[in-house]
Design brief:
The structure is a homodimer of 374-residue chains. Chain A has twelve helices and eleven strands. In chain A, the strands form two sheets. A six-stranded mixed beta sheet of chain A has the order 7-6-8-5-9-11, with helices on both faces. Chain A has a five-stranded mixed beta sheet with strand order 2-1-3-10-4, sandwiched between helices. Chains A, B: This is ABC transporter substrate-binding protein.
Chain lengths: 374, 374
Amino acid sequence: MPLSPSRRNFISTGVGTSVGLTTGWLVGQNVNLSPINWKMVSFLKENAQKFILYKAPQMICDRVREMTQGGFNIEIDKNDNQKIDTQDILKNVSNGNIQCGYSGIYYNDERYKVLFFGCAIPFGLTPQEQTAWLLYKKNPDDVLTFIQQIYSTKLNLNVIPFPAAATGGQMGGWFNREVNTVTDFKGIKMRIPGLGGEVLQKYFEVTLDKELPGGAIPIDQIADELKQDNINAAEWVGPYDDFQLGLHNVAKYYYYPGWWEPSTTFDILVNRNAWEKLPKEYQRIFQTACLETYTKLLAEYDTKNSEKLQELRRLEKIGKIRLVRFSNEILQVAQKKTDELLTLYSSNATFKEVYDEWSSFKIKIRDWSNLNKI
Amino acid sequence: MPLSPSRRNFISTGVGTSVGLTTGWLVGQNVNLSPINWKMVSFLKENAQKFILYKAPQMICDRVREMTQGGFNIEIDKNDNQKIDTQDILKNVSNGNIQCGYSGIYYNDERYKVLFFGCAIPFGLTPQEQTAWLLYKKNPDDVLTFIQQIYSTKLNLNVIPFPAAATGGQMGGWFNREVNTVTDFKGIKMRIPGLGGEVLQKYFEVTLDKELPGGAIPIDQIADELKQDNINAAEWVGPYDDFQLGLHNVAKYYYYPGWWEPSTTFDILVNRNAWEKLPKEYQRIFQTACLETYTKLLAEYDTKNSEKLQELRRLEKIGKIRLVRFSNEILQVAQKKTDELLTLYSSNATFKEVYDEWSSFKIKIRDWSNLNKI
């Protein structure tokens, strides 16, 4: 759904008076400048504040405010009354209703599915490879990255995405029953979004939570729904965030690896007109704050997940949970079916173009990753 | 050797007039401010400009200048007449002769060996794990990271290091003869610095270039010395940088993995007094520019190394070179001897303290890395 009409004039009021700043530093004096004010929406609301991922927007806003001495203020819209899904955020940033939005690529329109290559592809890149991919330019002189260009040149979106958060490798999720073979997935009801969910739905006969009568399950109800066996499995992020959700208290089997999301990344989407009106130094500050936050959150995930994993191993010792690797059969079929799904979407020319570029990038960088592995 | 006396007054002239800035943004007006001017030395001189690693200082200086609209200028000292080794840079930044320096941890004094934990330990962390380690704080509320604290609290250095560049995993290097067993290393003369070099010297009976009559080989002479068989092997970085050096033209065997440097990282060392005199927003800008550069260079290394690896595979096909994995025997002995070397250095209490913290961190994060690997 669209944002409320009252938000529609932020760009004009916020950015219009900023032109003076571009005249630059003159022996250290900036005179007659008004602060620039932006609003940001987030796909994560207050009920997500215990997760590491939730922090990115505030970190970026704080950093930008500090670095500009309050000259560039981005305020996060904390209005929880509206449910704003990720595709709404994309559209509202694109049409200028709001200057920027924190979002993951969980879209419904088929034509936006290509954007998953900037977020999470099953059996895709490792986090380190993903970072290289997100910053990859076809021509080193390009201002925009390959992925950033797709938004405007192929999808007519008036949006520039900046990588702003990364979870690192995820887990396969919590199951209240064992899944030893592909057949064991049949009939399971599972909370899982994205292309991984599509693979499970199309080829493993899993019912996704969004198909259930109540629709997609809100974050704070996932544990309850699993406990009551309304769903049989749920994937969220990894050891740290999953603990925050309490999933270890309501299901016994914690599967790995999270083949559907080996390196999920999240962006701040920025309206291109608002961006172009920013003084150059504020553009740099914003970009730099985003990439710094991306790197810091990935590091925090790795550190905190590794600590929680130790706790999981203790819980396994006392028999409370079980940590189980997906069988080779499951992983092999999942890989094959992922390829089928991506080939299916390649009937769309843009999807094919990006898939081809990504595949070629993946082959080369995986060769390198494997070679220098000790 | 120390820097020239004429550089000793940079801090007083550069930072003294900056106090006005800390009074902050007042409806967008900063009045009566003078630019802050710093100098930076780099351990890499002009003869290194074709390597990716060389770029970090200029990227950071450019970024800081842009983000502050020229309010904070850091100039790189390009005086190539002086050979400034990494330990000189450490000392000169610590005693305030210069505000900052770009450096790798290639030190000679035993008491500084502990700082290798912030740079490169043989069989150490992967690049992704290393990033988490560099940002790791014992207490989340600490201002400084664990590694940053070691400099002042344990070594009495008036220095704060900021991670600013990463090569990613390195290669084992170019050899003009085959090394199938540990015995084959005996008598080899090799260009290799750091703890990896110490392992080879102490336990593999390798002669290091720095022990040769002419001393450590300057960068631009490595290929020639290898060609003339004055040395039999040389490790530099990885596919891209090694190509720049032309090593593929003078040696046949390219060994991997680079067990001595699985994730080498480089810092900008900053004098603490100069740092504390910076306005807070300039501190943030500097920090953020460093971490952004770190992430970008690692991504660039991964992408360009993966492209050069394809070229290496073509050269292998036509018989020009051979890509060879170190034998399991070599890797196992090297791992064991690395542990011995680190235990040896642990007779120093500070080294032991950091080694213990690092080892515990490594066990946990490696468990997590392995678990979520697909």
